[in-house]
Amino acid sequence: MNISLLDVVGPVMIGPSSSHTAGAAKLSKTALLIYDKTFVKVKFGLGGSFASTYRGHFTDFALVAGALGMSEDDENLSNSFEIAREKGIEFEFYPTEIPSTYENTARITFINENNEEFFVEGASLGGGRILVTNINGLPCEISATSPTIIVQQQDVSGVVSDVSTILAYNNINIGIMKVSRTGRGDKAFCIIECDDIIPDNVIRDLKRVNNVLSVVVVNISGD
Predict the structure, then answer these.
(1) Do 25 and 72 contact (CB within 8 A), yes or no?
(2) Is 117 helix (H, G, I), strand (E, B) or coil?
């Protein structure tokens, strides 16, 4: 059995809990990176033990901090409410049922100035590890442990091949690729976990692919 130092001592973080605090902050920050737009309000739907213990474990402060772009070890995490208010960003928390096999779950909904909503669901797995399980209604599995490309596309032939060709041409190795869709010929997500950081020129090339609707890159190093 392989055991890392992280499994023994836990992540570098602002406490008290790796699952309820560090994991919550990382999940919320990853959701922000996926959304990748400005917003005026964020709502946090809390499921499982998050719903009952979020105040005592500072999960609420951690979630707001992540939505502001803070990492789990940011010393300003406990000031996240005040910082959000200074930025004019509203936030709220509510209990909800999130279908999941995991105990600590959240639905993070970003709302822009036009009152348009975009949500990301996921879970904190313990030890600061997370799993994103749904992006705006499309199921997925994103661990945010390596650079990840999220391509939203029309479900037509050739798109995945064109995307893969661009990555191969730029010597970017694909670790895992998964495609999910709402229906045949409808919209789809292509989730690609890579071994290498994705540079800006590759992102631009991916956005030019026919039938690609959007490209979001979460450049989190697995080192």
Answers:
(1) yes
(2) strand
